[in-house]
Amino acid sequence: MPKLPEALGTPQDVGAVAPDPSRIIPHYEAGQVGAAMQGFARDLGASANQVQDVQDRLSRAAAEQDFISKKLDIDQQFAGDTDYATAPQRYRQALLQTLNDTSQGILGPVQRADFQQQMSRFTEVGVDSILRQSVAKARDAGRANVTQAAGATVSDALRTPDEANLNPIFNALNDRIQASMEAGYLSPEEAVALRKSTAQSYVSQRGWRLADADPQQAVDTLRPSALGDDGQPSFAKVGDWRDLIDPGERTSILGRAQQNLEAEQRAADIEALRQQRQQQKAEADAGNAIASRYVDQLAVDPTSVDVGALARERFPDSQQDTRQALLGAAQTAIAQAGDKTAAGYGLGFWQAFNRVTAADGAPNKITDPAELLKLAGPEGGGALTMQGVHQLQRFLDANKTVEDRAQSAMEQNFLRQAHAAITGTEAPADPASEARFQNFLGAYFPALQDSLASGKSAMQLLSAASSDYLGKLIPAFAPPPTPRPDTAAAAATSDRRDKDIETPPDNRSFWERLGDRWGAAARSWNEDRQAQLQNVDPVLTRQLAPRLGSLGEDDAGVIIVPDSRGILDKTIRFDPTKHVILGNDIYERVPEAEESPRLSGARAFLGGLGPGPLAASTLAGGIEAAGAGARAAEVAGAEAQGTRAAEAASAGARVAETAGAAPTEIEVLSQRAQQIHNILDPIPRKLRTTAALSTDGPTIVGGGAVKDLESAQEAALQPGEISAKLPGARAEVTVLTEALKSGLRPRLLATTRDICPDCRRYIESLGGRLTSETTAIFPSPEK
Question: pTM of whole model > 0.70?
Answer without folding.
Answer: no
